């Protein structure tokens, strides 16, 4: 059964760059394939080379990109493509809620965990979560 239709992109601005990585982080994938985000919320961007999407999957190998402030509310879905300043970075793997209600960790699948400086990230860069071209 087809569940998802077209949607607008979720946009944001990078507010803090993170520089570290971990191989033992122990994040846990939430059982949700999507999360609604509101304008003004701040969430963390985390890269990983894990590819499991089952609820409860443990995510250990991570690189931290930074925090974004949402500028246009919407729905972020597993499989959306994260862009920074128009460059694709990876696809949304899922969400970890260990810091709720403060923020979500938005897990982004990349070939290898990457940090903010490795991608040349800077505060105020434009962030976009874009639905893959399916329509």
TrEMBL record:
<feature type="domain" description="DUF6917">
    <location>
        <begin position="6"/>
        <end position="130"/>
    </location>
</feature>
<dbReference type="InterPro" id="IPR054210">
    <property type="entry name" value="DUF6917"/>
</dbReference>
<dbReference type="Pfam" id="PF21891">
    <property type="entry name" value="DUF6917"/>
</dbReference>
<protein>
    <recommendedName>
        <fullName>DUF6917 domain-containing protein</fullName>
    </recommendedName>
</protein>
